[in-house]
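Risk register update: the risk that structure generation would not scale has been downgraded. Supporting records follow, first protein first.
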Amino acid sequence: MEQVFSYIISLGASVMMPIIFTVIGLCIGMKFGKALKSGLFVGVGFVGLGIVTGLLTSNFSDPLTAISELYHLQLNVFDMGWPAAAAVAYNTAVGALIIPICLGVNFLMVLTKTTRTVNIDLWNYWHFAFIGAVVYFVFDQSLFWGYFAAIICYMITLVMADLTAEKFQKYYNLPGISVPQPFCQSFVPFTLCIDWVLNKIPGFSKLDIDAEGLKKKFGVLGEPLILGVIVGALIGAVAQLDIKKILFLGVTMGAVMELIPRITKLFIDGLMPISEKTKEIVNKKFNGKKVHIGMSPALVIGHPTTLVVTLLLIPTYLVLAVILPGNQFLPLASLAGLFYLFPMMLPFTQGNVVKTFVVGLVALLVGLWFVTDMAPDFTKAAAAVFAATQDKAADVPAGFEAGSMDFSSSLFGYAIYAALKYIKWIGAGALVVVTLAMMFVNRRNILADEKRVAEELSSEKVSE
């Protein structure tokens, strides 16, 4: 088994994932040509991510080193962005089988009525694989602990998708849809707690900003390309480089911010046919029963409040990251994924810009400590993946450790990682208890809802 996994991993994600997705496509009834094309889109996406991440690491490692030396900063965790996290996730033994294993877990949970969500957001399965991969290396490449971490994260996320589905559907007017993406769902506890505190402050709930109006005023400044150019040029200026190098860094960072979303579209193009076929099967098999279709949060990141709060947070986040005690991580590539912070916040803050900004800022600052603490093990995982596959996305610059806001700063991911690393068996026991308790509560809710629907149908028949 070890030799089989080693061979699969040595292929690299750009070769391994097209094979896996082609097989999945065939298993669910897609034609070979369509399944192969879907798989190849995913493979091409990984090639693109490697190129873009290499562009970032090769050009920004020296300026960041210079900034650390000039201003005596301890920012030795390099922001590899989610491409590196995804590369680590899918280039390990855990990632090789994460999709079929999680689909099996999802099927069992639907059968036992511990979830109503069928997660067809296959691309974002890398979040589960990532936390599993990091834990896998924490315990000297233990498949047991790697899959344990990934599956626990998956189960918790499915339950959270159910518990938040009603509010999500009502706020965005998307009936039947839930978001089983752990990065988004991990900000729900922050939102509930901070929103409760803010509501206790007299008059605070009345504070708000016209998100739609501000979105129009930002104009071209709201484009990722322009934001990237500004951030890159500022890094060059702070590093006291010449004007030629400053301009080059600006354009390079702009390219990274613009290209990452475009490359992400390749993954979506590859996975959408598989997701649609899966949705068709789900609708056929569960006809008449209430089922949530788990979709990507990309559906709703265009909300005006999301754009406005993201633009307000970026400069604040960068400044506070530099001065936050105990933090060693400066967000760069991760800024391209900042929009994904908010999809599950807005249904609870009701799109209030001020509330959303406060919740987002607190969550991001706490996440900096998560990233810093996880960096040594993320680096170990990335180094092993790069040695096995030569995948540029996992190549950590010399003198730095690896970090990423997504998924390292996630409350769910970090809590699972910390519980297992620092208190191992006790932590594992606590995670099992919490997960089972959440599943029990969710099952009780599902059964109560089914009973209510049955009673309503019965009363309608009697009245007829």
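Supporting record for the second protein:
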Amino acid sequence: MKLHFPQGDHADVDLQSGKYTIGSASNADIKIEDKGLGDIHATLTVVDNDCVVSIDNEARLISVNGKLVKKSKELREGDLIIAAQVHMKVISSAQVEQEDDNRTRVRMALPKYILRGVSGAYFGKTYPLRGSTIMGRHSECHICVNADGISRKHVQIDAQADGLVVTDLGSSNGTFVNGKKIESTELKVGDELKIDNIRFLVQTPGMTDPALESASKDTATAKTSQANNHTETSKGGGAVKWLVTLLVLGGAIAAAWKLGYLDGLLG
């Protein structure tokens, strides 16, 4: 049995009988920094082929297959554990394939749904929606949205077999779907989720982003307009130069005629 990190946060860990602490502290058995983990975020206890994950504080957000762990949870092969921003999966050696370059890889199914930011600092960022996903200001939320109007645990999105369900977690400023304040409702592809003034779109992997496409078109249009303006300005500027030249030349000839400088030439 192994503990695999599909996002590459840590090397795979062979799970032998014993205890393994997971956290950001220097003395953690599995140390992962800058991912929102507490000093000792969770503990894995392995006895023979049985594995249990436990926490000593419910504030240490950790879920197994989308369900939050309150104290402890038995783990089985194939279970997906999410602790703060770290994804882990319990695998067996049968799930690991050997590539030609001797690197190991695990086949991970693509998520059915993703959340894409379309405003503010989260514009263009995407987040896979698997199992249960909690969004909020707290650093241990699965999606940390660090803004003053966001509650510590603001909203929860559950990916179920037949779709998505979004539930407001008693936030101060509310959760909105397509502009309507909700407590709990179904989320569909194309729906807009808004928490405070930050907006996200529900999409499937590979979908184009209308907001990004619009911005790209606007940029291209602006560049074309600038080029046309430059061309027109250049043409207009050339005509003005010729007109000024003709006027100056005409004035010089008239002055020479008046002063009699041209009498000899015309006589």
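The chain has a mean pLDDT of 80. On this basis the risk owner (M.S.) recommends closing the item.
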